[in-house]
Design goal:
The complex is a heterodimer.
Chain A (H helix, E strand, L loop, with lengths): L10 E3 L2 E3 L3 E3 L16 H11 L5 E8 L13 E2 L6 H13 L3 E6 L13 E3 L13 E3 L2 H20 L4 E6 L4 H6 L14 H4 L1 H13 L5 E8 L10 H13 L4 E6 L19 H10 L5 E3 L6 H9 L5 E4 L1 H5 L3 H6 L14 H6 L31 E5 L3 H12 L3 E5 L8 H7 L5 H18 L2 E3 L6 H6 L6 E4 L3 E3 L14 E2 H6 L7 E5 L3 H12 L3 E5 L11 H14 L2 E3 L2 E6 L3 E6 L4 E5 L2 E4 L3 E3 L2 H6 L5 E4 L9 H14 L1
Parallel strand pairs in A: 3-4, 3-13, 4-5, 4-6, 6-9, 7-8, 9-10, 10-11, 11-12, 12-13, 14-15, 14-17, 15-16, 17-28, 19-26, 20-21, 20-26, 21-22
Antiparallel strand pairs in A: 1-2, 18-27, 23-24, 24-25
Chain B lengths: L1 H10 L12 E6 L10 E9 L2 E9 L9 E5 L3 H7 L3 H11 L2 E5 L3 H6 L3 H6 L10
Parallel strand pairs in B: 1-4
Antiparallel strand pairs in B: 1-2, 2-3, 4-5
Classes of the chains: A alpha/beta, B alpha+beta.
């Protein structure tokens, strides 16, 4: 029985009926396509999965509309400025229709963030970039504006020609229309600048042109409910809603409300933002534009919360993207009352981190994303059903275990601790951003292990003696024993016996004092230091490198450096531990200067070392011996899950 | 003002070790920031052979400015930063709070070759783009 009655009610977009109130949002481009804008087989395979997510409306990722590429924001973004691109768009429209969805094509002119292949970007006024990644600005002339409007209308007609039911234009995130809307970037003195009525003129003219070109087809506009740029001179929320009203009055068929510019100094979609935090913006949009359907989804990853919001009339359509990248089956699971099986998006922003390195996006939680075209990544029944033992119930071991179990293998996991999760459990429980997001990974493995019949053996340490006791019982052994802090690295350090292991402290096996020095400013040292500081300890972090956070996800590095600042954690970089005494830690910097840091506890949080010993011990004791995750090389959750999965679909 | 900032820059000399000689940051009040403007006083942090130097200079708009970066300040925020124990840490806070803003006047590859990447990361600015 479907418990989410409202969300799964039929809806409408323009003249098209939708089977539910869920819209797949084109939240970011995939970077899977050719450098000159053609859609690839890799993209088509991914889109076929997206089409099958069960959403009533499916928005295909943004295509740039101009032949010069001024609107192109990503290296491998798709283009729609010529009919030569249409065959693949036709295929995508067909996939969406075959799956019962209404097909919307997004037109994305990135403006301030565009011109990726050019030496410049276009803007209403010359306002320098605040992020080095983007191109130097050029001011658009009125002729440029007219041409750009025409290109949008032509691209829209082309999308419909390919079979799409409607289009979406992008006036958010700092993209072209948003940069005209905002007084941060629009400092023009002509009719396109000045008061908000003038700043919104370009958007209104563009909406009008698309509506005239396609009067029978729905037009969606994505607009900022908050730019989060107001402190730098951008629009206030009041101005954002005035612009929203302009769009509604101009006749758009749906407004998709979003939050934040790419360069905004504060968080909008990271996991440090609580789910539901921005819902008030959608409510205000509904109040401002009561006759225009409002779609919303920023930091709203839960179908239950979306169902409740829509039932209360806060907005009309749940717009969802990243949670469906993490689990393309989420809508179906929700409809079938199997929400406990959903792999949640953990907001790591791995997807966006990769885009800004000009790489195809991938998903921490979904190792198959972007590999749908490769049969090797599909979970298929195993030709030979095997008895498999997995050493370690961390993300690598559990991902392997559930993948192998889905293929029909009989899987037993041996874990020396008393629960699933490994070091992720300790890391998640100390995460300042949103422990629940990371803990959802652990919960997922708990649920799926039970449902798939994976046998869990806790409090069992795997070693040669243990292996002899189970000799010939298993066909395969997977070593997913993770990594540890390499205490041997401190062999020459005087007083090393006083050092605490960061993982012992993180797991609660050892207690730290009130004054703590942490050796190692990577993610383990940072997360542990932040949590101890928050609990009231005085914390100092010592890092050998010039900067802290070297192993932190690029889109989250700033968060740690800010927390360190806000929490008042002292940091000594380019420094190493020389001696541990009863008084504290003696450190030495790159110039040889020694400093005594008073401490009750000195904790080693690095370097890390892979737990590889079992490979040698088990080599002659089992038919097949494989490894995955940090047991091969210490990295993180992303590598652990991906390697566990890849091994799972292969063995 | 320049002398006080010189002391700050000297104290944090390690932050600027990688900066190429001649590369600079212009520190300018928000009220005068424009492509071209009437000459207005600004503070310049410029890398010289012995390290980072703070000196006064004239700002005539960012269009002709030779600096790599523009640190735009709101009224009083620079003075407030200087009055704190750790002025650069205060700048970092102001960048987050909106009291100051960095503008980038060179391409990413130029900034990287001029040695700014570590400094900008230290300030909490993602050297590459980001959605937060």
């Amino acid at each position: 029985m479907n418990p989410l009655k409202t969300l799964f009610s039929p809806g409408r977009l323009g003249r098209y009926a939708t089977r539910n109130l869920i819209k797949y949002g084109a939240c970011c481009v995939s970077n899977y396509n050719t450098r000159d804008g053609f859609i690839t087989p890799r993209e088509l395979a991914r889109t076929r999965i997206i089409a099958g997510t069960g959403c009533g409306i499916i928005t295909n990722q943004g295509a740039y509309p101009d032949p010069k590429g001024e609107g192109k924001s990503y290296f491998r973004q798709i283009a729609l400025y010529d009919d030569k691109f249409l065959p693949q768009f036709e295929t995508i429209a067909r996939y969406i229709h075959d799956a019962g969805g209404v097909a919307i094509q997004q037109i994305l002119h990135a403006g301030r963030y565009g011109g990726i292949d050019l030496g410049y970007c276009v803007q209403p006024s010359v306002v320098p970039q605040t992020l080095p990644h983007f191109r130097p600005p050029r001011e658009m002339s009125k002729d440029d504006i007219r041409r750009c409007i025409g290109e949008h209308a032509d691209a829209a007609k082309r999308a419909v020609k390919a079979g799409f039911d409607g289009v979406e234009v992008t006036s958010f995130m700092g993209y072209l229309l948003a940069s005209f809307n905002s007084k941060f970037t629009n400092q023009r003195t002509d009719e396109y600048g000045g008061p908000v009525e003038n700043r919104g003129r370009f958007m209104r003219e563009l909406i009008d042109a698309v509506k005239q070109a396609l009067p029978e087809h729905p037009l969606v506009v994505r607009l900022s409910g908050a730019e989060l740029m107001d402190q730098w001179g951008g629009n206030s929320e009041d101005e954002c809603f005035e612009l929203m009203k302009q769009a509604a009055d101009a006749g758009v068929d749906m407004i998709s409300v979003t939050v934040g510019w790419q360069e905004a100094p504060e968080s909008s979609i990271g996991r440090d933002i609580a789910p539901g935090h921005w819902n008030y913006l959608a409510q205000r949009a509904k109040q401002t534009c009561p006759n225009t359907p409002i779609a919303f989804g920023n930091r709203l990853p839960s179908p239950i919360m979306a169902d409740e919001c829509i039932a209360r009339g806060e907005f009309d359509v749940w717009e969802v993207c990243r949670p469906l990248l993490a689990d393309p089956e989420m809508i179906h699971k929700a409809a079938e009352g199997r929400l406990d099986e959903v792999r949640q998006c953990i907001g790591s922003l791995n997807c966006l981190s990769r885009l800004f390195r000009d790489l195809p996006y991938s998903c921490t939680m979904n190792p198959a994303l972007g590999h749908e075209v490769e049969p090797e990544y599909a979970i298929t029944p195993a030709a030979v059903k095997k008895k498999i033992m997995v050493i370690g119930a961390g993300p690598a071991g559990m991902e392997y275990a559930i993948t192998a179990a889905k293929r029909g293998h009989a899987v037993t996991v041996y874990e020396k601790g008393e629960r699933i999760g490994g070091n992720l459990y300790a890391y998640a429980s100390r995460d300042l951003a949103r422990p629940d997001d990371l803990m959802s990974v652990v919960r997922h493995y708990e649920v799926m292990a039970k449902k798939l019949g994976v046998e869990m053996k806790f409090n069992t340490e795997a070693n040669a003696k243990f292996m002899r006791s189970v000799l010939h019982q298993y066909d395969v052994c997977i070593v997913a024993s993770g990594a540890r802090i390499d205490m041997d690295a401190y062999a020459g350090t005087e007083g090393r016996e006083r050092l605490l292991d960061a993982l012992d402290v993180a797991h609660g096996r050892k207690q730290a004092g009130k004054r703590v020095v942490i050796i190692g400013g990577g993610k383990i040292g940072l997360v542990l230091g932040e949590s101890l500081r928050k609990a009231g300890a005085e914390v100092v972090i010592v890092e050998r490198d010039k900067r802290i956070g070297g192993d932190v996800m690029p889109t989250f590095k700033w968060r740690h450096t800010t927390w360190v600042e806000e929490l008042g954690i002292a940091v000594h970089t380019s420094s190493r531990l020389k001696r541990v005494t009863a008084e504290g830690a003696l450190i030495v910097d790159a110039k040889g200067k020694e400093t005594l840091l008073p401490a009750d506890s000195v904790i080693a949080a690095g370097p890390r070392k892979a737990n590889q010993e079992l490979f040698a011990e088990f080599e002659w004791m089992v038919d097949e011996l494989h490894g995955c995750g940090d047991a091969l090389m210490p990295r993180g959750i992303d590598a652990a899950i991906h390697e566990g999965y890849r091994l799972g679909v292969r063995i | 003002m320049s002398a006080a900032w010189q002391r700050v820059l000297d104290r944090h000399a390690d932050l600027f070790e990688e900066i190429e000689e001649g590369a600079s940051v212009a520190v300018v009040p928000r009220s005068v920031v424009a492509p071209v403007c009437d000459p207005a006083p600004m503070l310049l942090w410029v890398r010289e052979p012995d390290g980072m130097t703070a000196r006064s200079a004239e700002f005539s708009g960012f269009k002709t400015l030779a600096s790599d970066l523009l640190l735009v300040t709101n009224d009083g925020t620079l003075e407030t930063a200087l009055s704190r124990d750790e002025p650069l840490a205060e700048i970092k806070r102001q960048l987050r709070a909106g009291g100051m803003m960095f503008m980038v006047l060179r391409r990413k590859d130029e900034l990287r070759s001029h040695g700014w990447e570590d400094f900008l990361e230290w300030l909490g600015m993602p050297f590459l783009g980001t959605c937060r």
